[in-house]
Write a structure and sequence with these properties.
Blueprint lengths: L2 H11 L2 H23 L4 E3 L25 E2 L12 E6 L7 E9 L3 H16 L12 E13 L5 E12 L3 E12 L5 H23 L6
Parallel strand pairs: 1-4, 2-5, 3-5
Antiparallel strand pairs: 3-4, 5-6, 6-7
Helix pairs in contact: 1-2, 3-4
Length: 216
């Protein structure tokens, strides 16, 4: 029996009460069919083009100082950042609950995206050392937060928070950094743009801090 062809015949022959129940049931079938045929999410994002280290030139702001050679250890984070879900938090309603967009995803995990962004920034500010070169200090970043936080139904911001550790034969420095940038729209696309800008801001602050350490 094909439900699509049999349902109209059943509706015509059924009593009124049963007819109402069948209508509700058929509506549920239609919705579930849409969900089943929708397939995997097709909208994917990365953090976009990297911001050049010399963008301050010509703006009246001093260019960022060059860094000595630096190794970058693999960026880590909590387990929930290891997938490619794009997370948001309704701070105004359910502050303790992280939720993921159903049809929008990162192209890879946020930790890997951030790791690539960080390495590009380090290379632009100095020399990105080989991971096994113990003569150069190393930077280890742990992502603590990477999500879109809604303060209301129409306003949100991208929040990136991390802990950075610099070491060589012992710890040379450790500090926590956070950056927040407003989302231009109350959706996943707006959250991605805000998180990309917050990532660039927190990386810039992190590298400026490293420049103040005695690394040589």
């Amino acid at each position: 029996m094909n439900p699509a062809t049999e349902m109209p015949r059943l509706l015509r022959s059924a009593p009124a009460r049963l007819r109402a129940a069948l209508l509700i049931f058929s509506a549920g079938l239609a919705l579930s069919g849409c969900a089943l045929t929708r397939g995997e999410p097709t909208i994917t994002y990365d953090l976009g083009p990297a911001v050049a280290a010399n963008t301050a030139a010509g703006t009246g702001n001093p260019a960022p100082a060059a860094l000595p050679k630096l190794r970058v250890a693999q960026t880590d984070g909590p387990n929930w950042l290891e997938g490619n879900a794009l997370f948001y938090r309704l701070q105004y309603a359910q502050a303790q609950r992280l939720q993921a967009y159903a049809t929008q995803r990162w192209v890879m995990s946020p930790t890997r995206l951030f790791d690539e962004r960080l390495r590009e920034a380090v290379a632009a500010r100095g020399t990105l050392g080989w991971s096994g070169d113990s003569s150069a200090p190393a930077l280890k970043v742990d992502l603590l937060e990477f999500d879109q936080v809604f303060d209301s139904a129409i306003t949100s911001e991208g929040v990136v928070r991390l802990r950075a550790t610099v070491y060589r034969h012992g710890m040379l420095g450790q500090q926590t950094f956070e950056a927040r940038r407003p989302a231009p729209s109350a959706d996943g696309a707006g959250g991605v743009k805000a998180l990309a800008e917050a990532s660039d801001a927190v990386i810039a602050a992190l590298l400026d801090w490293i420049g103040t350490l005695q690394l040589k």
